[in-house]
Amino acid sequence: NNSSSSSSSIVKVNKKIMSSFTLISQSTSNRNEEKLVFASVGVAISHIFYVLDNDFLSTLHSDAVSALVSVLNSCRQISDSFSNEILHRINNLIRNSSISTISTMLSSIHVFLAVFGYKFAPIVTDIVDFICEHWNNIDQSLLTKTIIHILQFIPESLNVHLPRIVKCILTGFEIYPFTLSLTIISAFDTMES
To answer: Is the overall model pTM greater than 0.85, yes or no?
Structure first.
């Protein structure tokens, strides 16, 4: 009975991880080499998300985020359907992961914004929710820099959230360390431009 249960979990794992054959078929290139590069990137990203989706692998989450950033930086040749899948998975992580995993992701948000641009906009609401919920619990400088990066790449996505963000980051401003105060002032400067 144990062997059938373990084989069933292997099947479930394999369904979550995209196969190279699926990705080769999604490639728009006519060149085999480009199809193989596209597939290898897709398989790597799929395995990275497998690590990120599993709490029992949480000690690897920081390295997995770093690996994801490296892969996205080195190969931006991603189909629209796979981009949408990556964004969906990132959004799920923002909603459901540990604070440390989300913090690691936010420290690399500029890469996600550069790669996905305006496609990243639907995730901003969940990021703002996270920032406001955890403003007093984690590195406020990281959260402020996250806001600055979003403002630099996709400023319109923050328009509806600005009153909430301003209220959140100004609460306690008079007791913030000088460096945090400067970062917040920089965020306001970015909002003006």
So the answer is: no
